[in-house]
Every structure is written in structure tokens, then in C-alpha cells.
Amino acid sequence: MNISGRLIDAFLALEETRRFAIAAERCHVSPSAFSQMITRLEEKVGARLFDRDTRNVSLTAEGEIFSKGAHRIANEITNSIAELRDRASCAVGRVSIAAPPSLSASWLPKQMAEFKREHPGINLQLHDVVSDRCIEMVANGEVDFGLNARSSHAKEFDSVLLAQEGMFLICRANHYLAKRKSLKLKDLSGCVMVNTVRSGSVWQQLQELLKSIDIKDSGFEVSQFGTLAGLVANDFGISVVPQFAIQLCKLPGLAAIPIEDQKAVRPIYMLKRKGRSLSPAAQAMWSKLVKNASDLTI
Amino acid sequence: MNISGRLIDAFLALEETRRFAIAAERCHVSPSAFSQMITRLEEKVGARLFDRDTRNVSLTAEGEIFSKGAHRIANEITNSIAELRDRASCAVGRVSIAAPPSLSASWLPKQMAEFKREHPGINLQLHDVVSDRCIEMVANGEVDFGLNARSSHAKEFDSVLLAQEGMFLICRANHYLAKRKSLKLKDLSGCVMVNTVRSGSVWQQLQELLKSIDIKDSGFEVSQFGTLAGLVANDFGISVVPQFAIQLCKLPGLAAIPIEDQKAVRPIYMLKRKGRSLSPAAQAMWSKLVKNASDLTI
DNA sequence: GTCAATTACGTTCTCCGTAAGGATG
DNA sequence: CATCCTTACGGAGAACGTAATTGAC
């Protein structure tokens, strides 16, 4: 059972034209070759498909039967390849991304909106999740790729560094540090801290950075930056958030001061499953984000 | 778009096994050839279908898409060929025959019953029609072949002579010819004739045979032999019918006397459209009828 | 080092074109 | 004899196998 698409085409052409010479032309082969093709097809399927003499060509009873299948086969092949071409050209498709809440609020939506204008047929999905969950989704193939602040998965994933973002102190405008233009990590000594959840990369990174500094724990662990801002505004303590989360913390009476410290930077990695290729659509989105990552370093 | 069934098989084998070596074995080719086949397929469809290194093989996003089509294509090919094989072996099929009422009453049903026992999957159809309609049905392809008493279509059809049947006088038992053991056509001179319909071959043949003999016309033209018998029994005249119609004319008080005359024989031809092949099932039936035609000459 | 996929290269065979053959009207 | 399908035959290219190579664990 090794029928080539070519032979199917030959069958359909002859069925329609009922002329070897014309069907041969349509298939871009000589009449002789075409005759041989029909003979080969008949040998392969094990039945005579056309009754023919030098004047008349017509389907046999078996040819009539085979005709249905031939049309279906031709359609399946055409459709399958057309679908692949559409996906290859990003005419249709789907891109699914996991990203931390900070980037999901402004930069990513902007990029995705631009992408959607360029590729209207592509379906976009954005999961704003904490770091641990992001890693999990990428590893499981639940998303095409993810954005994440941890570099600890270098070997498990294919990744690129998109940008480095700074960290900011968030405090009440009347806090004793609120008037500073900038500060160092050690300046936070003695402060009470409102934390993000432990499963997020912010918590995990701060834990590392502040372990040698005398910080008091407010006891709060929140998952939304809005909540965090509310707590700080109501004097439960200060907090430290990455640059792109600041706008999520905007409340009257709050100040944000940049922390200028070698270590107080957050890498933003983009990562996907190692050794697995992206769909054309996902690849296009990946490339777009890499290209526009310079926006992030303003 | 010239994808061979072989390449589809290769795709499916690799999708299932996720091992080049094993899939190659299943396709009866060397690992090298198999690797080339996958590469060729990917070139033909214009997309990478498998992510692979020396350790792992997995479908790409595009491979997942193509998989659906590949399965459908493989099924279509398999089913199409299986159907043809079934028909070639007469496991399924349909045979449609047109025949004159005389043969449709006993001989053909017997042959068809035997055929049905030999090929239970084949659907049989019998059209008992007058000669003109029989010719028409064969010419139009409404039936696979027909049985007919006229030889006048030698060039228009492919035909074989199945048998020659004699002609019989049908008359009342008290008719003056009823006691004869046999008679000649000219013995009918002076009789009143009940005719079959003009579109039947019996009428057409008798018209020729009796044109030089002084026969009176009863005015009746009937299509059923039973009706004809009824008319004869009620003294509307005599009639002449072919051998195989006699049993359809059996009524109390009627006699049937053989007409022994060189010309008073009816050929029974089997004919089909010229240059057109029969379906395997129809061919099998055709052959059976040719083989068993000797029954008719008893 | 071992195992699995790929590449290199020579061979085989499929497939096509030119040209001759045969049937039909 | 003109047209159209088929057969014959030779060449180009595709497809396969053996063997060497590359890459991952």
C-alpha cells in the first residue's frame, strides 16, 4: 500500500477529463508516462479502474468505488499541508505564555497587542502566575514559554536573559527613608517588612539579599502587589518590589525609592523546554520579545 | 504535494514508537533510510515534524497537527483498498440483471439463489422487462447485463448466445390442433392470434415468422403470459409462446404443442455494454450463467 | 564508552521521455 | 490515415543500504 499523491492526482485528472492526453498535460507528464502511471495505480490497488480503448475512457465499477476514496485522500493531503502552511506563516496558531504579575501588567500586554495586530489569526494566552508555577507550566508544556526571574534552571531549560530590572523601596511618604533619592540595601536595617508569597521569585530573591541585614517580619505574605501597597500605606511596614511592579503599588501617600546596589537587580529570563522547538507562532512571539526587550531597560 | 503512503506509514511508526531504529524495522528499511524518509517527509510538508536528538524523539507542535491528517490519510487508503479487495473477491458487491419474463420466472431465480449461497455478501437485482426496455437498460448502464432474444444488436453490445429455445402453440384443449404431437408454422394458417405486446421480442419475432401466413388478429396485445393464457382459455384465439413461457401459461383446458420448424427457435443472448468491463461480482454471475446455460437446452 | 540518529557514498530501482507499435473510426 | 492509447527502451534521479560520523548520557 504505497500510493503516492501523484498517482491520486493522475486518477482524478483522468476521471475528470476522460482523456489520457489532456490528463497527462494537467499532470505535467508525457502521455506515455501518464499511461504508465494509471497502470501502476491499477497494479497497486489490485483492480482495473478504467475501461479504455483508443477512443473512450470510462470508470469501471471498481473505479467508481475508488473515486470516493481518491477524492477524500486528495482532500486530506491538501488540507493537512494547507494547515501546516498556515501555521508556518503564522496565519493561524496559538501562543501561550506564563509570566510574573509585574510583567503581565503592562509590558507584555503591550507586546501581545502589537503581535495580535501583526498576526490577527493567532490566539494569545497569558498566565500571570508566581515563579514556581511558571517553572512548572513550562516544564509540563502547559505554555509555550515563560518569563521568570530565576536563573537557577539553566540546564533544565533553554533560556535567554531579556533584561535586568532594579529594585525599589516602597514606603509611606512620611517614612524616614522617603526623602532619599536612592539607598543601599543595608539602609533598610531595622525596618518592618511586608512580604510577597514565598512561591514568588521576589520573596526568594529578597530572602537571599536581606539575610545579613536586620529586618523585622510583619508576618504578612501577599500575592498581589495592590494588597502589598495597601498594607504599606496603612503602616504595617515597608516593602521592596521590582521596578515593573511599582505601578501596581501606586497609592496616595506612598513613595518609591530606587535601591542602588550591585545585588539588588532582578534578571528577567525567558525560558522554554530544553530541546523542544517552538511552534512558528510561539517562535515569532519569542523573537519579538527578545527584540523589544530593550524597552525594559529604560 | 507528492506524499507517498510509505512516508505516511513512516510518520505513524515514528509517532508511535518514538524510536527511529524500531520504527525503521517496522517499515522494513534500514535506520539510515528511515531517517532520510522522515527528512523527506518534513521537506515535502514544509515543516519540522519531530524534535529529536540522539536520545529523545517527540512531535513538534506542527507534528501534532499533521498527525491528525496522517491518520486520516492512512485510514482512507487502507479502507479504499480494502473495499476494492472485497469487491474483487466478491465478498461484497451488487449484480443487476434485466431479463424477459419467461426466464425471470424459473431458470434465473434458481441461478441467482445458487449464486447468493456462494456469495452471501452480494446484492442481487432482477428486472423482468420486455425486450426493448432490456436493451435500453443495458445501453444506459442501468443493469450490469441483460438477457434478450434478439441478435440484432451484435455490434452495439458484447454478447454470447446462451441457448436456443423452441416455440409452442398455446390453444384450448378442444382446438382442432390440440391433439397434434407437433406442427409447422404454416399449420397455424387461419387461426386467430392473441398477441404479446409489440415492445417484446416474442411479438417482434412472430411478426417476422408469420407474415407470409394467413393469421387473423384478435386485437389483444398483453404483457403478461398469464393474461394471454386466460384469453386463449376463453376462446379469444390461439397464441405462440417460447418454451420457457409455457409454465406461465398453464391453465386447465389449455394445450401446448411444440412447433417444429427451423425458423421457430428463439435465441437467448446475454449482452452487456461493449468495451465496458463488468464488476467482479457481475463477471462471476455472467460466467455462472454461461456455464449453466446447458440447463436450458434440456 | 556506548547507544542512537545522521551524513557520506555507492548501488539499485523507480519513474519519465522519446520513439515505435497497435487499435479504432 | 488520423487520432489516441500502449509498449519498448534508455537515461536521470530518487531511494536504499553499508559504513563512517556526530552527539548525548
H and E order of chain A: HHHEEHEHHEHEEEHEHEEEH
Overall average pLDDT of chain A: 91
Largest interface: A-B, 42 and 43 residues
Please mark out the parts of chain A with pLDDT under 50 across 5 or more consecutive residues, or reply none. none
Q: How much β-strand is present in the residues of chain A?
A: 15-25%
Quickly give the structural class of chain A: alpha/beta
Secondary structure tally, helices of chain A: 10
Short description:
The structure is a homodimer. Chain A is an alpha/beta fold and about 300 residues long. Chain A has 3 domains: about 5-90, Winged helix-like DNA-binding domain superfamily/Winged helix DNA-binding domain (Arc Repressor Mutant, subunit A); about 95-165 and about 265-295, Periplasmic binding protein-like II (D-Maltodextrin-Binding Protein, domain 2, 3-Layer(aba) Sandwich); about 165-265, Periplasmic binding protein-like II (D-Maltodextrin-Binding Protein, domain 2), CATH 3.40.190.
